[in-house]
Write a structure and sequence with these properties.
By secondary structure, the protein is mainly β. Helix content is 4%, strand content 52%. The longest helix is centred in the C-terminal third of the chain and has 8 residues, at 234-241. It is globular, with a radius of gyration of 22 Å.
């Protein structure tokens, strides 16, 4: 028995993840897909000498997590990837880690679907997700470039998916921030934050995106579990539209505790007023029994 083809490390489960095997002359061959050494799917082949299977559709539904209850700034969360092994009649493949992102495998930088210039309310916490390999430098500049408030450098020999928790309350004297990402001393991405006053009746949602990040947005209006955004430019509205198809959505009030909720797709919509638009999102508590 030979497993002759495996997907590369950190390939995306949004694409194909092909495994190919050559079997012995047995009348029946059993292929099993394992997540963390637990079988999550099996397939039987009869009178088959060789076959290929795409495991991506099998494993996607098994990626579920919650943002960590932590105040750490830069961290790695291992349950945002899947460690997958394929076994064919006693022959086991090397374990490979896969992530969920629409970006190409050689991508380096922030995984985000939100605009590069953002508003964040005092009291709110944001999260940035990034992919990197090599020497990574992450820094926060306050008010103007060159005023470094935070800096951290890491050297990664393998591609890593890292997460950065940004809380403007840690720097109360500043109302504008530039979050920069360098790889091997070259600036590759920059996100600008403008700090605004908190909303007394705001509701903050977080959701998994097609890009592979967890994005956050504070809705200023909440009416009977229907949230209404501010009038936003096209780029922000397109990001908010992902809420209707997101595999996981949470409500958070402090950026530490997250309650999973369910978006009611047929009651959520973009409302246009001339050249301006806002997003209405209906949600309900997550039914864990379904």
């Amino acid at each position: 028995m030979i497993i002759s083809l495996l997907p590369p490390f950190y390939a995306s489960m949004q694409g194909e993840l092909p495994y190919r095997f050559t079997a012995n002359s047995e009348p029946e061959t059993v292929l099993s897909v394992l997540k963390d050494d637990t079988v999550i799917a099996s397939k039987r082949y009869y009178d088959t000498y060789a076959a290929q299977i795409d495991v991506a559709p099998i494993i996607r539904k098994h990626l579920r997590f919650a943002p960590p209850q932590s105040t750490e700034m830069l961290y790695e969360q291992t349950d945002r990837r899947l460690a997958i092994t394929v076994a064919v009649d006693g022959t086991t493949s090397e374990t490979r880690c896969f992530i969920s992102t629409s970006r190409p495998r050689n991508f380096t930088g922030f995984l985000t679907s939100m605009p590069w210039k953002r508003i964040i309310r005092r009291g709110d916490v944001d999260e940035l997700t990034l992919l990197s390999i090599g020497t990574l430098q992450f820094s926060i500049h306050g008010s103007q470039l060159g005023n470094v408030l935070y800096s951290e450098t890491r050297t990664e020999t393998n591609k890593k998916q890292l997460h950065f928790r940004f809380n403007p309350e840690q720097f109360p004297d500043y109302t504008r921030f530039y979050v920069q990402l360098y790889e091997d001393e070259e600036l590759i991405d920059q996100i600008e934050y403008v700090v605004a006053e908190p909303l007394p009746n705001g509701c903050r949602l977080a959701w998994r995106t097609d890009a592979g990040s967890v994005e956050h947005y504070t809705f200023p209006i909440s009416r009977d579990n229907v949230l209404i955004s501010a009038f936003e430019p096209k780029g922000m509205i397109e990001a908010l539209r992902e809420l209707t198809d997101a595999p996981q959505v949470w409500r958070t009030s402090d950026g530490v505790t997250y309650e999973e909720v369910e978006v009611v797709r047929d009651k959520s919509k973009v409302v246009r007023h001339g050249s301006l638009s806002c997003m209405e999102v209906a949600f309900r508590p997550k039914n864990t029994l379904r």
